[in-house]
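Structure ticket #2291
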Amino acid sequence: MDQWEFEKLRSIEDIFKADSLNLLSISDPNEALLHHHQMISDVMLSKDVDDDVKVQFEISRNLFLYSFFYYRFGMTSFKQAAAAAELGLRRYIGKPDNERENTLKKLLRRAHSQGFINLKKIKPHLEPEEFIRILTDFRNSLAHGSHSLFSPTDCITFIDDYAKILNDFYMYVRKQQLKSSLNGWE
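Resolution: structure written out below.
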């Protein structure tokens, strides 16, 4: 079989067939789907997060859910969670007309150093700069083309990290009654 056979567009009959990579630890497809759904159901954004950021994050959650049927959507779901975080951070701490200062890495550094988020609280076993490097290096490798395959557990960990970042960030924004500095749709 061609190594890319699994990547080809599914036939109409196979659309809802579990990707075999998702059946390695739980062989029953129904049980595996329930487990997959429960993993992403547990990751949620708070009511404080702006609605358009929530929409972008929900895209991530749905991509993860559908990665049960197409494994590679898992990596796309992680990348989408990073994009939602970047959107939310840029809106309040981004620098207008200066895209070089609005990269995800710089936004995360700024949010942490200015007390919007506490990265040590999210990942106590990592130094903040190491945590930022891990999040942004993986995101950048996916955004610029990669053959990486992350397990669903790895993907859900990254998605959950971004949810915690957004929840902490927006809790601070609401508490301080901050106004956005940029149009988040730009």
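Closing remark: The chain has one domain: 18-176.
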